[in-house]
Amino acid sequence: MSDISIVPLPGNVLPQSTLQSIFAERLIAWQRQHGRHDLPWQNTRDPYRIWLSEIMLQQTQVTTVIPYYAKFLACFPDVAALAAAPIDEVMALWAGLGYYSRARNLHRCAQAVVEQHDGLFPASPEALAELPGIGRSTAAAIASFAYGSRATILDGNVKRVLARVFGIDGFPGEKRVESAMWALAETLVPAGASDADVSAYTQGLMDLGATLCVRGKPDCGRCPFGDECIANATGRQRELPTARPKKTIPTRRTWMLVLRDADGLAVLLERRPPAGIWGGLWSLPEAADEATLAARASALGAAGTPQRLAPLTHAFTHFKLDIEPRLAALDIGGRPTCSEARDEGNAWVPLEAIDSYGLPAPVRKLLTALKGSLL
């Protein structure tokens, strides 16, 4: 902790060493009485279900995850079923949950568990962290909940709790601050605790950050550390953790082609490259400007000049994307109506079947509106 700035301690706040010594016991007691106990992935030691929930919960709220979690379990009840599934089926179920590299890594991880570990998730955090898509904190959470391992987690919620309770200045995403937080977190995990206590401690960290020590208006009056929390004692709840340094969010622009077949009931989709935004999803043909898109439309057999559709804007973490959609139809002369047909990179998809494809959210919104106007 010497590498980071600590908010000066008010006279009525416990010394840090004392707070560290009581932290785990206090948190476990709070979690058992006030924490969350009825989430769909709780009350199980099944590492598959725990892993699935932890991957989905990365940068995504519980209420958003719950229906996706249920759908995945219905389609893929175990790791072998997920590993054997086509990637398109996985991506289609994931569509709308965002951060699509998680879905690709989910599939790769399931295959690795089946092929390299005989279908059984490793018990150690170190072995779990070597699997695709599982970082240090996620590995610790899986090991704690599935196997009762004494492992340290440090996700966004936990960083917020530690920054406020222990008065840690500095942006937690900065390497220097994050390393110091890991060092502190390691000292807080209860030594010699039972498996149940370790799981309650890990869940308590998550629950405290998600329900009381929230970003906007933390409920300090109900917090088990309300009297000891440095942020509360110094009125710095809104300042801690230190916010990410502000950067100007750039705006990018792209043109998308909605190309319909001869009878207007199917559209052409292209699979996006595995890397980059919407990696591996199906999307619409794109171009960097109007003229290039018109040339692409002509090369694909469109009749006439593509028509303007209402523009869309989609926000990513680091930039905004302005989408200029254009509508065109295949030249009817000598061209048949297209049924659902596909190869590795292209697919003619009936509008009524788009829900079975993994599509970026704005593309799904655009095609759903088109389907509603035609069907």
What can be said about this structure in brief?
This protein has helices spanning 16-34, 47-56, 62-75, 79-84, 87-94, 101-117, 125-128, 136-147, 156-165, 175-188, 195-212, 230-234, 290-299, 361-374; strands at 251-260, 266-271, 282-283, 286-287, 302-308, 312-315, 320-330, 341-342, 346-350. It is of the alpha+beta class.
Please describe what this structure looks like.
The chain has 375 residues and is α+β, with helices and mostly antiparallel strands. It has helices spanning 16-34, 47-56, 62-75, 79-84, 87-94, 101-117, 125-128, 136-147, 156-165, 175-188, 195-212, 230-234, 290-299, 361-374, and strands at residues 251-260, 266-271, 282-283, 286-287, 302-308, 312-315, 320-330, 341-342, 346-350. Strands 1, 4, 5, 6 and 7 form a five-stranded mixed sheet that branches. The protein has a four-stranded antiparallel sheet with strand order 3-2-9-8, with no helix packed on it. The radius of gyration is 25 Å and the shape is elongated.
Work out the radius of gyration. Answer: 25 Å
Structural class, from helix and strand content? Answer: alpha+beta
Low-confidence stretches: 334-340
Helices and strands, in order, run as HHHHHHHHHHHHEEEEHEEEEEH
Q: Tally of extended strands? A: 9
The general outline is elongated
Strand content: 5-15%
Q: Treating each run of at least 4 consecutive H or I residues as one helix, how many helices?
A: 14
